[in-house]
TrEMBL record, chains A, B:
Residues 9-69 form the HTH tetR-type domain. InterPro entries: DesT_TetR_C (IPR054129), Homeodomain-like_sf (IPR009057), HTH-type_Tx_Regulator (IPR050624), HTH_TetR (IPR001647), Tet_transcr_reg_TetR-rel_C_sf (IPR036271). The keyword Repressor does not apply. The keyword Plastid does not apply. Keywords: DNA-binding, Transcription, Transcription regulation. This is Transcriptional regulator, TetR family. It comes from Rhodococcus wratislaviensis.
Length: 209, 209
C-alpha cells in the first residue's frame, strides 16, 4: 500500500479504524500490530508512537467500537417527538439489534470473549452500559415511571437481559428479528412493573393507550 | 502443617477445597500452586500429580464453587410440596442471594473478573446458568406458562438480569435483602408475560390467588 501523508490525528484515527474493521473478522487478541501497520503502510515503530502498547491500541479499538454502537442506537430527537415512548424504545432496540447483527463477530467476541475479562476493557463496557441505562431512565417518566433505586437496578438488569437474549439469538436465531425486538422492548415495562408495583396501574394505562 | 495420610481422592478434594476457600480472599489468578501446596503440607510436584497445570487446578476450583452454588440453590423437594410456585421461586432466590452475599469475593471475581474471559471458565459458568435455566423452566407450567422459544430466551435473559442486579447490589446495597429478593422474584413472571403476552391473563390470575 502506498504511504499517504496524513496528519497525526488522521493517522491515529486511521489505525484505530483499521483495527475496528479487523475486529469483525477475528477476536481482539488475534489483532497484531504488524498486520495493522502493514495495512496502513506504516512501520510497527510508528504505530507505537501513537499507542503506548498493544493493549493500549486494543483498548482504543474497543472504545471506538463502543462509541459507534452508542451513536447508532441513540434515540433520534427529530423523529421522536412525533412518536409515543414505546415507539422510541422500539426504534432504539431495532437499531441495536441491527447493529449487533451487522457486527456480530465484534459484538460476541468483545462481550463474551477474552476481552470481557480485562479490567480496562470491562471499564469501557461498563461505561457503555451506563450510557444505555441513563438514556433508558430518561424515557421512563414519559410512560409513568419515576426512577427509584429499585427501578435504577431494574434498568441495569434490563441492559444485561437485552445483551444475553440478543447474543443467544445471534448464535441460534429461532425468533425473527421483529420477535426479538419485541421481546427486548416488552421486557422494559415488565421489569419496571416488577420493580415498582405501586405504579403498575399507571404504566398499564400508559402502554395500552 | 503436619503431612497427613489421605487417599488420592481425599487429597485431590482437599486441594480443591483449599483453593475454593482461598478464592473468597483473592481473585483466581492470584491463587498460586505454592501457597496451596504449603497449606496442604504437600510438595508442589504432588499437586501437579493431581492437576495437569495451574489452569487445570483453577478450573477445578471454579467447578467446585459452581457445584456448591447449585447445591445451595436447589429447590427443596420436601418443603416445596406445601408451597405455591411463587414461594418456591422466592425460596430459591433467597438461597441464591444469601449464598452470593456470604461468598461475594468469589462470586464477583469469577463473574466479573479475569476468569470471565477464559473460555474454559466461561464454559463452566454457561453450564451453571443452563442448569439454573432448566430448573426455572420446570417450574413455569405450575404458574400457567408453557415453554416456547421466546419463553426459553426470556428465562436465559432473566438469569443474566438476576446476576447483574445482584452484583450491582453487592457493590452498592441500597435495597434491603428482602427488597432485592423480591425484585429478582417478580422479574420472572414479568418477563414471562413480556415473552408470551397471550398467556398474561392466565399468569396474572395464577400469581394473584
Amino acid at each position: 500500500m502506498k504511504r499517504t501523508r496524513l496528519s497525526p490525528e488522521q493517522r491515529r484515527a486511521q489505525l484505530i479504524d483499521l483495527g475496528a474493521k479487523m475486529l469483525a473478522q477475528r477476536p481482539l487478541e488475534q489483532i497484531s500490530v504488524e498486520d495493522i501497520a502493514d495495512q496502513a503502510g506504516v512501520s510497527r515503530g510508528l504505530l507505537f508512537h501513537y499507542f503506548a502498547s498493544k493493549h493500549d491500541f486494543h483498548l482504543e479499538i474497543v472504545r471506538h467500537t463502543s462509541s459507534e454502537m452508542l451513536a447508532r442506537t441513540a434515540p433520534d430527537p427529530y423523529v421522536e417527538e412525533a412518536r409515543d415512548p414505546m415507539q422510541i424504545l422500539r426504534s432504539v432496540l431495532a437499531s441495536y439489534v441491527d447493529y449487533v447483527t451487522e457486527n456480530r463477530g465484534t459484538y460476541v467476541s468483545l462481550l463474551r470473549g477474552t476481552a470481557s475479562g480485562d479490567p480496562d476493557m470491562r471499564a469501557v463496557f461498563e461505561q457503555t452500559r451506563a450510557v444505555m441505562s441513563e438514556r433508558t431512565l430518561e424515557q421512563l417518566p414519559a410512560i409513568g415511571i419515576e426512577p427509584t433505586r429499585a427501578v435504577d437496578l431494574a434498568v441495569r438488569g434490563w441492559i444485561a437481559y437485552v445483551e444475553e437474549v440478543t447474543i443467544t439469538w445471534l448464535r441460534d436465531p429461532h425468533l425473527t428479528r421483529e420477535e426479538l425486538i419485541e421481546l427486548n422492548v416488552q421486557a422494559l415495562p415488565a421489569l419496571a412493573i416488577a420493580a415498582a408495583p405501586e405504579i403498575a396501574a399507571a404504566l398499564v394505562s400508559a402502554t395500552t393507550t
